[in-house]
Amino acid sequence: MVVIVLTACPAGLRGDLTRWLLEISPGVYVGHLSARVREELWSRVTSLVREGRAMMVHSARNEQHLAFRVFRPDWEPVDCEGVTLVSRRSDDAYHGFQGKMKPGWSHASQYRNAHRFRAQGKKNYFLPDEPADEKVNG
User: How many domains does the chain have?
Assistant: First the structure.
């Protein structure tokens, strides 16, 4: 069993993979291939992928019964005592994070404070136009 996942790849590569594999979702291909065809197909994918990324998972004779191959990964497979785990690279872990929050209040706190402010203006009592003493005595 072979599963290939493509991200941001040219349409020609996607069409090329449909010759050997079944596309079950955009960019996700599955099928049964021999080892030789799998190796040739992977070399073809890596040569045609251009700016995109590719990941292949195939059956193997190990504890997990599968093996990973990645090309330009956001995640990388790491062998941990015979078990392959997938970890995120440390430079991609906090992509775009500068270490401090934007100044000011968050949108949620702005809405909460606005709701509190509106609630302060509403009073739960009634003020008649004329004082009650004059009406009773008059």
Answer: 1
Q: What is the distance between the terminal CA atoms of the chain, rounded to a whole angstrom?
A: 96
- Domain interval for residue 58: 2-91
Give residues with Cβ within 8 angstroms of 10, minimum separation 6: 48, 49, 50, 52
Backbone angles phi, psi at 118, to 5 degrees: -65, -35
What pLDDT sits at residue 13?
93
If you average pLDDT over residues 81-105, what whole number do you get?
64
Q: Which of 43, 53, 49, 37 is nearest to 12 (CA)?
A: 49
Positive or negative torsion for Cα 9, 10, 14, 19: negative
Determine if the pTM surpasses 0.85: no
